[in-house]
Amino acid sequence: MDWMGDGYSNEDCKAVVQRFFFVEVAKHKTQEFEFLSPGAEKKTSKPVMRTPRRYTVGRCTLAIVMLDFFDDRTLPGRGSWAPAFASDTDVASFNDLWLTADLIEACCMVNEHHPGWAIAGTYDSIGVFIWTAGSYEDRLVPPGVPTFSTTSNVTAIA
Asked: Helices H, strands E: what count in the chain?
């Protein structure tokens, strides 16, 4: 898997995590949503958020993707865990997803200087991914619903 792609920028990846907070967490706070894969049916009474959701700043993308999208054992770093165990719906708040992205920033980007991913959601079926914009994985995942402008950059965050 080619998460780094061409032109990985640690600065842009830190910025996308910050921007995600200001765009989604500041708006929705701790309200829980049911996140759904394309074509999945709603299973709770919570408001719905369709996935994938993609947020890009400069050369870095933060993506919210239901883990059932991925083939078994294609995701690095999870040992015997496989997306076959993932549901096509799950419940989380944007704050939960931001905390997961913040963990990726601390563990992967700050310490290792590379992108990464982590599991989120009540049933561990939501993936929070940070990868280089235009990398293989970025192209593999459908665009999804509009979030914030792909022309956003670090200077526009303040």
From this structure: 4, 7
Q: Which two tokens stand for residue 74?
A: 């294609």
The tens place of each residue's pLDDT in the chain, 158 residues long, gives 455 556 677 888 899 999 999 999 999 999 999 999 999 999 999 999 999 999 999 988 999 999 988 876 667 665 545 555 789 999 999 999 999 999 988 877 667 667 788 999 999 999 999 988 888 888 888 888 767 654 444 444 43
Beta bridge partners of 34: 48, 91
Tell whether the torsion through CA atoms of 29, 100, 115 and 48 is positive or negative.
negative
Q: What distance lies between CA 35 and its chain's CA centroid?
A: 12
| Residue in this structure with the two tokens 């408001």, named with its chain if needed | 47
Question: What distance in Å separates the CA atoms of residue 148 and residue 29, rounded to the nearest whole number?
Answer: 17
